[in-house]
Sequence to fold (137 residues):
Amino acid sequence: MSVKHNEQLVEKATAARLRAYSPYSEFQVGAALRTGSGAIFTGCNVENISYGLTICAERVAASAAVAAGERNFTEMAIVADSIEPIVPCGACRQFLAEFNPDLRLTLATASGVVEVIGLRELLPHPRRGILGNDADV
Ligand code: THU
Fold:
């Protein structure tokens, strides 16, 4: 995995972030997801006056990929204007793990702090026992 590969994804997430609809929190998040075909799907957070309906950037990107017929998630970049890189919320961790529990995440701030982490480190055992699943994947 070249550094350049990574940077391209961060750039896409940075651009997507600017399309965030976040009038309530004023916190903009961008995500870019690469799939097995090499395609990149982007997302931004979309808020709602009924706060609980808000969708995070990560789930928007993941849903765009699935809607395009791409379920083989390989890596995702997430960008926010924060002091330290943000991590996906619990709901997004589970949502992403549905398609790849070992998804590689590049977490970046708008000012250029970058960290790479595996989804499994943030969410171990995403499926254990559920619906009779005993594979612990
Ligand atoms: N948000 C994301 O889009 N992704 C994250 O990983 C964390 C939080 C959004 C949800 C809400 O619109 C705003 O950031 C503040 O929580």
Observations:
- The CA atoms of residues 103 and 119 lie 5 Å apart.
- Helices lie at 3-17, 57-67, 90-97, 119-122.
- The longest strand covers residues 73-80.
